[in-house]
Prior knowledge:
- With 209 residues, the protein is mainly alpha-helical.
- 81% of the residues lie in helices and 0% in strands.
- The longest helix has 34 residues, at 145-178.
- The two termini are 31 Å apart.
Amino acid sequence: MVDIHLYAAFLIAAFALCVTPGPDMMFIVAMGGRGGPVAGVLAACGVASAMLVHAVAAALGLSALFSTLPTLYQVLRWAGVAYLLYLAVKAFRERAVPAEETAAGGAGKRQAFWQGAITNLLNPKVILFFVAFLPQFVAPELGRVPGQFLLLGVTLVVMGLLVDGFIGLASGRLAAFLRRSERVNRWLNIVSGTVFAGLALRLAASSPK
């Protein structure tokens, strides 16, 4: 289905992308810092699920809509900004919550998956990335182009999940240890809120190009 040489090159490029710190990784670290290792891993799973949706969209050609409907890009971008700012405000408001309540609270664990998924789905830059990145490793002459897109997308999702899951677990375990101090607990929430706010500003300042 795919050119083996192109696929090998894709694996190298995909691994380099997955281990390079980016918005998704920063988000997962922040979620692990707020909710512990389980929240970090679930946030990584949420991001991976959204990436799978993007991969399927790219395979079906839906991602190309951004080329003809720039308004759709703007709508998603500002929705993503608003959601990240909501998470930032929520983290700042929880800075005074005792460590025991934060560690046991449902926000970090029950909602981590959906927060990771929604944040990624509302980032149009991810969709544009799939449109720009995956076609470089597709061989049209082999046929079944949608299948090639899907294979590459799933490979990227699995690789990203393994890396991000480890990052979420590690950051969550470190945060769980640090949260034994109420003062450190407050600072972790402030740091998480700052990360969310920074990601919102980064998305707000982005452009389709």
